[in-house]
Amino acid sequence: SAVISQKPSRDICQRGTSLTIQCQVDSQVTMMFWYRQQPGQSLTLIATANQGSEATYESGFVIDKFPISRPNLTFSTLTVSNMSPEDSSIYLCSAPRGASYNEQFFGPGTRLTVL
Amino acid sequence: QQPVQSPQAVILREGEDAVINCSSSKALYSVHWYRQKHGEAPVFLMILLKGGEQKGHEKISASFNEKKQQSSLYLTASQLSYSGTYFCGTEGGTSYGKLTFGQGTILTVHP
């Protein structure tokens, strides 16, 4: 089974700054996904990180605010740029696993607080 | 369109059963079920891919009615460890891998 790790696990940042979150999968996967979970809320898909091409963003999320890199099949980064308190959330990456690559597993998440 | 989960919350005694429903207005390719405990990431429970499919292991099972675009999660003889927030994540036919999550159902199991 794929193991997914994220760094940092949590951070407290000042408004106006940027934070880059790393996601590492222990096996090669075609697609990785980035989700946001605001306090007490459900999960919302930010974007799909495709290896070798630009990330594809969901409605309401833009590349300037959430730039994503995907340099290889096991690694991705999400940057939260020019942060405001409204960006305080848990950010999670996910990747498919299993023989048919249908099951989605999540990393442990990055808890971000913006002051 | 976010799938709708019901109920929003349920409180059980150990040993009691519960059903959590997930309903979508869109045609579905799959339904994923997760449990999330406070301060932790969602944990994958199961995926249902085919219409009318029912899956399960031990005391947690689920069904998927593709025609009705609905899925239900069945928790039988609940244990304290079942407490948490349950989310369904739905995947449309043209959105491979992208999940849209319901608002969650908070399950509390008391001794």
Describe the structure.
Chain A is 0% helix and 53% strand. Chain A has strands spanning 4-7, 10-13, 19-25, 31-37, 43-50, 56-57, 68-72, 75-80, 89-97, 103-106, 110-114. In chain A, strands 2, 4, 5, 6, 9, 10 and 11 form a seven-stranded mixed sheet that branches. In chain A, strands 1-3-8-7 form a four-stranded antiparallel sheet, with no helix packed on it. Chain A is globular, with a radius of gyration of 13 Å. By secondary structure, chain B is mainly β. Chain B contains no helices and eleven strands. In chain B, strands 2, 4, 5, 9, 10 and 11 form a six-stranded mixed sheet that branches. A five-stranded antiparallel sheet of chain B has the order 1-3-8-7-6, with no helix packed on it. In chain B, a hairpin with a 2-residue loop joins strand 6 (53-57) and strand 7 (60-65). Chain B is globular, with a radius of gyration of 13 Å. The A-B interface holds A 31, 33, 41-45, 48, 58, 92, 94, 96, 102-109 and B 2, 30, 32, 34, 40-44, 47, 49, 87, 89, 96-104.
Number of contiguous helices of chain B: 0
Strand content of chain B: over 45%
| Structural class computed from helices and strand pairing of chain A | mainly beta
- The count of strands of chain B amounts to 11
- Main pleated sheet of chain B: 6 strands, mixed
What's the gyration radius of chain B in Å?
Answer: 13 Å
Number of helices of chain A: 0
The overall pLDDT average of chain B reads 91
Helix content of chain A: under 10%
Secondary-structure element order of chain A, N to C: EEEEEEEEEEE
Helix content of chain B: under 10%
Shape of chain A: globular
- Care to count the β-strands of chain A? 11
Q: Ranges of chain B with pLDDT <50 over ≥5 residues?
A: none
Largest sheet of chain A: 7 strands, mixed
Measured between the Cα atoms of the first and last residue of chain A, the distance is: 37 Å
Please give the radius of gyration of chain A in angstroms.
Answer: 13 Å
